[in-house]
Amino acid sequence: MSNGEDEITAWFARQSRLSKADFPIGIGDDMAEIRLTCDVSVLITTDMLLDSVHFDLEKATLRQVGYKAMAVSLSDCAAMATVPVAAVVSVALPVGFGEKELKELHSGIVSAGDKFNCELIGGDITRWNNDNPFAICVSMLSRSSGDKPLRRSGAKVGDSICITGSLGGSIQKKHLEFEPRVKEAVKIAQMVTINSMIDISDGLSSDLNRICQASQVGAVIDAVKIPISDEASKEADPLSSALNDGEDFELLFTLSQTDCRELFKKWCGLIPVTQIGQITDAKKMQIKMPDGQISDLQPGGYNHLR
Questions:
Q1: By the 8 A CB rule, do 42 and 34 touch?
Q2: pLDDT tens for each residue of 168-193
Q3: Average of pLDDT values for 39-46?
Q4: The pLDDT value given to residue 39
Q5: Is 196 exposed, middle or buried (0-12, 13-18, 19+ CB in 10 A)?
Q6: Would you say 118 and 140 are in contact if contact means Cβ atoms under 8 Å apart?
Q7: According to the model, what pLDDT value does residue 13 have?
Q8: For the whole prediction, is pTM greater than 0.70?
Q9: Per-position DSSP letters for the chain, written without gaps between them
Q10: What is the pLDDT, as a whole number, of residue 248?
Q11: pLDDT per residue over 220-232, tens digit each?
Q12: CA-CA distance, 212 to 281, in Å (whole number)?
C-alpha cells in the first residue's frame, strides 16, 4: 500500500536527524511542529501550486487562485486540529503579470485568511524570464488548539473511520471554492478523543492509506456509506470519483466506537459527519462493495511522482 510520493517522503524522514525534544513532529505529517520552549510550540506547513496542475488560469480567476492557495494550507491546519496564525506567500510570475494581477491575487489570499483570522505577513515576488507558468507557494504557521496536535499515526484497531462532507467531482468547482474544515476539526477534537486525522487532498483511497501506513493498521470501508457529491454522481463511475478524485479537502479521521457514538449524539454542525468504515489489524485496505463482496483497495488518488 504505497506509492512513489509516499516512498520518497518516508526516505526523507529516515534521513532526518531532528531532535524529538525540539521537533516533536517532523517529515511525514500535514504540519511539522517546532518546540520553542518547554510549553510553547509552533506548527508550520508549506504548499506550492502550479498553473495547469492545481488550477487553470484560462478558466480560473486570480482571485480564485489566491483563495485556493491559502485555503490548501489552511486545510493542513484543519488536518491536525490546529489554529492558523499567519502566512507568507511567494509567487513566480509569468511574463505579462504586473500590479493589477498581483492585487487581484492578493484579494483572494486575504479573503481565505480572513475567514480564520490568519494574517498575510509577508512573502516574495519573482519573475520568470521565459514561458514558465505561474506558481504560488504558501507557508503557514499555526498553534495547537488542545493538548497536542492530531496526527496520522494514532489510528487503533477497532476505530471507526469518519469523514466530513461529501466526496468526488471537485474538479467541477469545489477545488477552487472549498471551505477548509478548520472550525469543524477544532470542534470535533474538543467534543471527543480523535486518534488520527488527515485532510483529503489526494483522494480518500490515498489519504486513508497514509493513516494506515503511519499507524501500521488496515481498514475496511463500506462503499454504500461513502457520501458521494452531486458532482461525482454525474460521473461514469461515481464511487471511483469519490475514492480517487482528490482535492475534496474534507476531514478523514478515526476514533473509538464509543467516541464515535458520542460524537453523533453531540454533533449539530452544518457540515455532516459520516461513519464509513473501521480500522482493522489486516495491514491492508479493503472495501465492502454494494453486493457485500469485500475486495482489496489500492491507493488510487493523485500522486505527484506517478
A1: yes
A2: 999 999 999 999 999 999 999 999 99
A3: 95
A4: 86
A5: buried
A6: yes
A7: 79
A8: yes
A9: ---HHHHHHHHHHHH----TTT-SB-TTSSSEEEEEETTEEEEEEEEEEEBTTTB-TTTS-HHHHHHHHHHHHHHHHHHTTEEEEEEEEEEEEPTT--HHHHHHHHHHHHHHHHTTT-EEEEEEEEE-SSSPPPEEEEEEEEEESSSS---STT--TT-EEEEES-BS-GGGTHHHH----HHHHHHHHHHS---EEEE-SS-HHHHHHHHHHHHT-EEEEEGGGS-B-HHHHTSSSHHHHHHH------EEEEE-HHHHHHHHHH---SS-EEEEEEEESSSSEEEE-TTS-EEE----S--TT-
A10: 97
A11: 999 999 999 999 9
A12: 10
| Residues in a beta bridge with 117 | none
Q: What is the mean pLDDT of residues 286-293?
A: 96
**DSSP calls for 86-114:** EEEEEEEEPTT--HHHHHHHHHHHHHHHH
Task: Record the cell numbers describing residue 209, joined without a space.
Answer: 492509506
